């Protein structure tokens, strides 16, 4: 939990500016959504308790505008800025120190059973309104630009992806222009 | 109403998996939004009662994040997955067995009077964050991809449209790449 | 405040149609969000009162789905249609008689300190799900289409911008096709 709070403080320029603003972190909807997910909904989901975890998840969606399915696995230091409209699916897996903005979808295509949502590495930043669909793999240290769309394609480590459909525009610090590699062929 | 519930159960893989999860359907914000729209707001709107239908619609928007104008005509078996940020305009018409995802806009361009929102056929699926604007016609059995943008263009039956601006990428099961036909010339 | 109400009445075709519908303007979430911002949160922010303005802003986000940072400067006659998912950053400046739709982001890139959000002129219309990032300048009498993405580029007066990345498609009433001028080089 302290890592989640630190993630807010370090990532948001509007709070970082002044120690007087530190108490504002308790106002962040993502903090409420993540605490309930991490310490209540997800543990109850793993115990296979019916209904209650999903009820909590939907109630937190009402309070925060952030919908995290109780099944989602989320690493430490997770920060969702603004958060309205975020959807994280049941079989999504998110690594450590990831940052999401509002309206990000980590969802499914409707064509898979079982594992049907993305697996995301560590230190990944996903810009506002980006949509990631299907059981794809996003590497470590990846940046995904606002309004990017990725479906059925993987993203390698240490690159920046923008556009709809997403293209790699930076890799290991060098400017490039490459399509993503198709990982799921229908 | 039973058809709306069946639409949830059949369309959402996270519920479909197990009968134990069936009670979760009552948690779906779309179910609350649609029941109030279908059985209260829209009938009162047709009676030309002022204010009350719109008040109910805005109150349901607060509860569910889904904004359905009381004037919208919506067919049976309607399912909105997640739903946050959905906007359906006053003169929109939606056929039977349609599915929408969150952040879908079925709106107007601001340039028309009277009928100014889309007319959508049966068995249409509209992906997250797609935007459909103007009094356009979307055919039956159409799939519209996530983040697709369609304005002032019609979509024929049995095709898949993706991109911004939307292009037809599949028609009657065959891969194609065609622009949409302009239906409204300004 | 009267100008904000007039802005709703004049801009929304679903209210404009009939005087009987005028009372509906009090239902608009944008009106609640803007009144609290204009008359309470922003003045308290200017007095450098800690915590309270941000608390009010987050509470209004909960009620309306519209997140306006208390620091944002907003001119008269401001209208946000639908409004769910709108985010307006701390150092954003918006001129007079502007209209925004739902899911519009007036945000930062995370790479600037101090002034880090857009400055927007008068009579600007920004369509649904458009994203404007960075300390860019948007001129007067500009129209920005739905799902447009603009980052690190300015927009001159009297033009229409669409696409991701945004391009100028109309300027002083003439059809054109021009890229935007880069204003911030990283």
Overview of the molecule:
The structure is a homotrimer of 186-residue chains. In chain A, a hairpin with a 2-residue loop joins strand 16 (167-171) and strand 17. Helices cover 24% and strands 27% of the residues of chain A. In chain A, helix 3 packs antiparallel against helix 4 (52-64). The model of chain A has no long low-confidence stretch (mean pLDDT 93). By secondary structure, chain A is α/β, with parallel strands linked by helices. The first copy, chain A, is built from 4 helices and 18 strands. The radius of gyration of chain A is 16 Å and the shape is globular. The first copy, chain A, has a 7-stranded mixed beta sheet with strand order 3-6-9-12-15-16-17. A 5-stranded parallel beta sheet of chain A has the order 1-4-7-10-13. A 4-stranded parallel beta sheet of chain A has the order 2-5-8-11, with no helix packed on it. Chains in contact: A-B, A-C, B-C. At the A-B interface, helix 4 of A face loops of B.
């Amino acid at each position: 939990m302290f890592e989640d709070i630190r993630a807010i403080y370090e990532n948001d320029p509007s709070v970082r500016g002044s120690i007087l603003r530190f108490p504002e972190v308790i106002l962040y909807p993502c903090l409420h959504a993540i605490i309930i997910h991490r310490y209540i909904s997800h543990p109850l989901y793993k115990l296979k308790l019916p209904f209650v975890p999903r009820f909590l998840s939907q109630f937190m969606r009402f309070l925060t505008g952030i919908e995290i399915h109780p099944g989602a696995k989320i690493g430490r230091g997770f920060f969702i800025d603004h958060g309205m409209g975020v959807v994280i699916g049941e079989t999504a897996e998110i690594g450590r120190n990831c940052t999401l903005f509002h309206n990000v979808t980590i969802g499914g295509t409707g064509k898979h059973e079982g594992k049907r949502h993305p697996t995301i590495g560590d230190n990944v930043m996903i810009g506002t309104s980006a949509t990631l669909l299907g059981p794809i793999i996003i590497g470590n240290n990846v940046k995904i630009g606002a309004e990017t769309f990725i479906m059925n394609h993987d993203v390698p480590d240490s690159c920046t992806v923008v556009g709809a459909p997403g293209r790699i525009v930076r890799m290991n610090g060098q400017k490039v222009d490459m399509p993503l590699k198709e990982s799921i062929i229908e």
